[in-house]
Amino acid sequence: MEPVGTHGLACLSDTDWADFARYMECQAETIDQLLFDRQTELEDFLSRPTMILRPSAVRTFAAGTISNLFNEVVYVNNSFMSLTSNGSGTETYISIGSPVGTAVTAYERGMYLAGIQVPFDATGAVTAFSERRATISVLDDTSPPDQTQLAFAYDVSPDAGTTITNVTVKAHTSVVLRGTNGVRVAHAVAHTNAASTVSITLNTDCLLWVTYLGPDELVEVT
Description:
Blueprint: E1 2-4, E2 9-11, H1 18-46, E3 50-54, E4 59-61, E5 64-66, E6 72-76, E7 81-85, E8 92-96, E9 110-122, E10 130-139, E11 149-159, E12 166-177, E13 183-191, E14 198-200, E15 207-214
Antiparallel strand pairs: 1-2, 3-6, 3-15, 4-14, 5-13, 7-8, 8-13, 9-12, 9-14, 9-15, 10-11, 10-13
């Protein structure tokens, strides 16, 4: 091959300079295919099965716990995750697969990641060091009573002052799902501010979510 110019390129033939144009065209096609493959991988990554919930309205409550804060779908891109609730409506969940007592819905087996984020605002006086807490649980109601909880995570933060401040708590957990029956991602949100009620506003920071990462044998933890 004969060097061409000062850019490190070469002609495939010493006599046929048209080979250089053909060579560059083949290189361009190869690069284009590689870029397309990377774009496809990125789109597949960004479109992993996911569901995101938020409150449908501002929630204000006295010291205690609520388990139905998240009751509105923000985003879902698959058919095997759904927003469900218990009969009384006091608890809401993200169901993965089939809610108990319904027809079996197939879902992707493998590693899932679930998370919660909740901003709290006291509406009046603040009890110093009162807690703000959020928990998530991945539950399999068909398992024996002492084995229903497959994963659990929580975050708790004290409101150290006595003035009205915003306190945000957030937690996440991972779980491997292999069963044919469905599971549910439940939540509980609580505070101990006895001096006044606490409000959870409707905004982009208040979310419950779950996403599928992929088959667990292919997920590398670093």
